[in-house]
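ugh ok so i messed up the first submission bc i forgot one of the chains. this is the corrected input, ALL of the components this time, i swear. 757 residues overall. if the numbers dont match what u have on ur side tell me asap before i send this to the collaborators (the ones from the other lab, u know who)
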Amino acid sequence: MKNGFRQSMAWLHTWTGLLVGWLLLLIFMAGTASYYREEISRWMRPELPRSAVSTDQAAQRAADYLLANAPQAESWFVTLPQPRNPAMQMFWRLPAELADPSKGRRGAFGDATLDPNTGTELKARETRGGDFFYRLHFDLHYIPVLWARYLVGFCAMFMLVAIITGVITHKKIFKDFFTFRKDKGLRSWLDFHNVSAVMALPYHAMITYTGIVTLMIMYLPWGVNVAYGTDQDAFYAEAFGGLPEVTAPAEGKAAPLPLRQLLDSARTHWHGTEVAGFSVANPGAANAVIDIRQRDGKRLSIDTPALRFDMVTGALLQETPPSGGATATRGVLYGLHLARFADWGLRALFFLSGLIGCLMVASGVVLWAVKERPKHAKSGRTGFGLRLVDALNIGAVAGLPIAFAAYFWGNRLLPLGLAERSNAEANVFFYAWGASLLAAFIWPKRMMWAWQLYIGAAAFALIPVVNALTTHAHLGVTLFNGDWALAGFDVSMIAFGAMLALCGWRMQRWTPPLSAAEKKKRAAAAAATKAPADAVEAEASA
Amino acid sequence: MMLLVLGLSFTAFTALSLAMEKHQQELHGKSAASPARRTQWRVLGWVLLTVAFALCVVDHGWAMGPVLWLGALTLGGIVLAFALYPYRPKWIAPLAIALPVVGLVAALL
Amino acid sequence: MDRSPATASPRLSTFFANPRWGVLSRSLAAIFGGYALASMTTVFCALALPGARGQAVLTGMLLAILVAACAALWAFATRSALRAWVGILAPTLLMAGISRLLGAWA
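and heres the new structure output, hopefully the right one now
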C-alpha cells in the first residue's frame, strides 16, 4: 500500500476486527462461559444431588449397572464423578446383532447417566446445561456443524491477524501500558481497547491460536492425505499415541478382580493421582482388560495418561507411550485452550481473561462507530454503514448478555416435562437475541443502548430471585450448605447485573463532549465572571 | 500462595508504572520523582515480577506456574489501569504495600 | 474534451484505477492465496521434515496456521497487489514442486 507499514497494518486491524467482531463476541462470550460449564450444568439441574460416595463406590455402582443393563456389551466407557461434575456418564458398544441400524453409527452404542449415590439413572430436567455454551462457541446453532466450524475457524484466523496487526500498530505499547484516560470520548474508548488487549495479550494470542489448533486437522487435512493416502487410521494411531485399540474378541469367562483393587494399582503407579474414569474391553471374559485414565489437574496436555491392566490377574499390560514432540506440543496447545487442568483460582483467572477479551472486542466495534460518527455530523444523517454497525453493536454487545440471561430464565421457567426441552431452552436464547437485534435495527440510538443494558441488568440480577421462586437450590440454601459452585453462580448473576446497570446508567447520562469552540467560549465567560469577583475579593482583604 | 502472587504482581506493576514519568505526574504532579528514582522503581518492579514468577513455578511447576503468573499479572494490571489510576489513585500506594503483606500472612498460615 | 454523456465512453482504466480493486485483490490473495500457501506448507512439511511421519504432519499444521497469518500481513503490507499475489503464490508453487519431487500426488 502507498501508506507506511504501520498504517496498512492499522487498516488491516480495523477491517479484520470489524467484519467478524459481532460473531467473535458470540464465540468469546460462549467460550468464556464454558470455563464454568460444569457449574452451569449443575445449576441448571438443581435436582442433581452432590456426590456423597467415594470414587471406588461410584465405580462399583457403574460396573453393577453395566452388568445388569448391558450384559452383552463388547466394551464399556465410564467417566467417574469429578469434584466439579457429580454425575457419572457411561456408554457401551453393543455387539453387531443388537445394534439399532435405524440410528446409523450411534445405534451401535448405548449410554446412560447415573447418580453415583444410588447407581440408578439420573432423574433431572432435560437440559444441555453449560454444554450448550461450549458447543455454541464452535458448532454455533441451527446450521450444519461442519459449516459452523469452518465459519468459526475463518473468524478465528481474522482474530489472529487482528491481534498481530494490533500489536504492530500500537506504537506506544509500553508507554501506554497502564494508560486509561477516562471521560474523554474517543480517546477513552481507544485507551480501553488498548489496555484490555495488552493486559491479557498472552491470553488472547494463546486462546485464538490454540482454538484453531483444536480443529486444525479438519481445516488442513492435506498433509495427512499426502503422507498416509487412504490409511487415515494410521495417522491417528501414530500422531496421537494413547493405548492401542483392543481388537481381540472375547475369550472364555472369568471373574475380574475387584474394581477398587485395580483402581488402587493405578493410583499407586501414579503416586496418588486420582482416576478420571475407565474403559473395559470384553467385560466378563478371561481376556478382559481395563484402561484406567488419570484425572485432570496435573498436566497441561489434553492427552490423558492411561494404564492398561489385565482384569483377571491385575497385571499391568501397557502404559500410554511417551509422545513425539509434535504430538506433545499439540496436546499442550489443545490443553491450554480447554484449561481442564485449572483449579478454582486459575480457572477464575482464565474466566477473567475471557471477559477481558469480550470487552476488548466490544470496545473495538464501538470504537469504530465513535470514530466514524463525526464524519456524518456534517451531512446530518448517518450513512448506511454506520447505521448498520450501530445496530449490530447494540444487538451484540447489549443483546447477547440478554440472551445469556434468558437461557437461564428458560431453564427455570420452562415446564419440566416439556418435549424437546433442551432445544426449547436453546431457542429461548436465540429468540431473546433475535428480539434484541430486531429492536436495535429499528432504533439504533443511544437510548436503545441504555434500555437493552438495563434489561440485561434486570434479567441477570433477577435470576437468583427466579431461582428462589422455582427451586430449593437458591442462595438461602446453597450459602448455608457451603455449595460454593451454586452459590457462586447466583452471586455472579447479581454481579453481572450490577455491571450492566452501571453501563446502562452511564449511557443514559452521557452528554456529548464540548467542541473546541464551545470550550473556549465557556472559558472566556468564566474568566469574565471571575475578574470582577477577584477584584471584589482583593478590595475586601485590602 | 495465590494471594501472595496476586499481591506481588500488583505491587510489581505499581512500581513499573511509577517508573514512568507520565504516571509520576499523575500521582505527584510537581513532586514527580527524578529519573534516578524512577530507575529504582523499575528495578523493584522487575525484581517483584521475578519473585512472583519463581513462587508460581515452585508451587505449580514449570508447566502451570507461568500460566498462573500471567493470569495474576492480567488481574493486577487491569485493576491498576481501569480502577485505581482513573478513579482511586490515592489507594494505589496503600494497596501496593498491604496486598503482598496480606498475601504473605495468608501463605504462612 | 467532449464530456457530454452522449459521447462519453466508459473508461475501463479509470474504473479499475479505483483503489477498491487493490483492496479486493489483496483480500483474495490473503484469504485464498493464504489458504493455498498454508495447505502447501502442510504437504511440504509432511514430506520434507525428518523424523516420524505423524509428527511431521502435525508440525506442518501447527506452522501452517502461522504461515496463513503472515500471508495476510504480507498481502497488505507490500507495495502492490501484484507483489501480494507473487509473494504468496511463488512459495506455494515452490513447495508444490519440491513436494512433487518428494512423491506427492504421484
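quick check: Chains C and B do not touch (no CB pair under 8 Å). that seems consistent at least. Helices of chain C lie at 12-17, 19-48, 53-77, 81-101.
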